[in-house]
Amino acid sequence: MSERLLELDAVVVAHATAGTEVRALDGVDFALDAGESVALWGPSGSGKTTLLHVLGGLVPPTRGRALWRGEPLLPIQTVAELGHRTQRVAYVFQGSKLLPTLTAYENVAFARWASGTNGHRAHSPDELLGMVGLAAKLDALPGELSGGEAQRVAIARALGQTPELLLCDEPTGQLDSDTGTRVLDLIDALREELGFTLVTATHDIGVARRYDRIVELEDGHVLAAEAVTA
Ligand SMILES: Nc1ncnc2c1ncn2[C@@H]1O[C@H](COP(=O)(O)OP(=O)(O)O)[C@@H](O)[C@H]1O
Ligand SMILES: [Mg+2]
Questions:
Q1: Which pTM was predicted?
Q2: Which of 53, 112, 170, 215 has the smallest CB count inside 10 Å?
Q3: For the domain that residue 184 is a member of, what is the CATH number?
Q4: Which residue among 50, 52, 62, 223 is best mutated to probe the pocket of ligand 1, counting the most ligand atoms within 8 A of its Cβ?
Q5: HEC string for 104-168
Q6: Relative to the CA of 220, which ligand 1 atom is closest?
Q7: How many A from CA of 124 to the centre of ligand 2?
Q8: What's the structural domain count of the chain?
Q9: Which residues form the domain of 212?
């Protein structure tokens, strides 16, 4: 029997903008089991990034609840809690968001150190960059890498945290389709090897169809699953 990793109940995320309330999420129920791969699919503005942020505990629900293994996902208040969280959940952000003054190696090593996995369990930064095919680029700065290479460093960085859950936000959004396919194939291969749960946000149905399940979002709502599979 699979284990429930995350559960969202009637989650609303509201932002006050110019005196009115904008609901990035408007009553989302969502459940994620350990080992699943799920696509969050919907047009720009539908709430994908906000939902990923709630799943990762970066954004607290304005209303409703978010549970990790049955316990509320609380805002991070201490460095110890941050380390604990980053050991469980890792992000591949849209546009990779590497630290520009650190080399590829240093970007991976820093995240690995910050998540407290230094010295046990995790692959070394060299191994991680080797796994994503960048053994020759350890000393390159982000500005010296192509978009696809930078995205692969971002994947190595996330996996260095040995996460239970990997959250990817439009991981191929800024890549040409061949490079994008290679990046997605790489995430699949690493998932087979390392066994993490995956949630990927995408507006591209071709990307969404790679995963076990598609959750369709529109205007901050989850649409019925039938609408996607029909
Ligand atoms: N910090 C914010 N302040 C105001 N509105 C926001 C904020 N973040 C997101 N939104 C709005 O919430 C909606 C969902 O945004 P987002 O989750 O980024 O969608 P997606 O990732 O699907 O493009 C959009 O209409 C967006 O403008
Ligand atoms: Mg987004």
A1: 0.90
A2: 53
A3: 3.40.50.300
A4: 50
A5: HHHHHHHHHHHCCCCCCCCCCHHHHHHHCCCHHHCCCCHHHCCHHHHHHHHHHHHHCCCCCEEEE
A6: 14
A7: 31
A8: 1
A9: 4-229
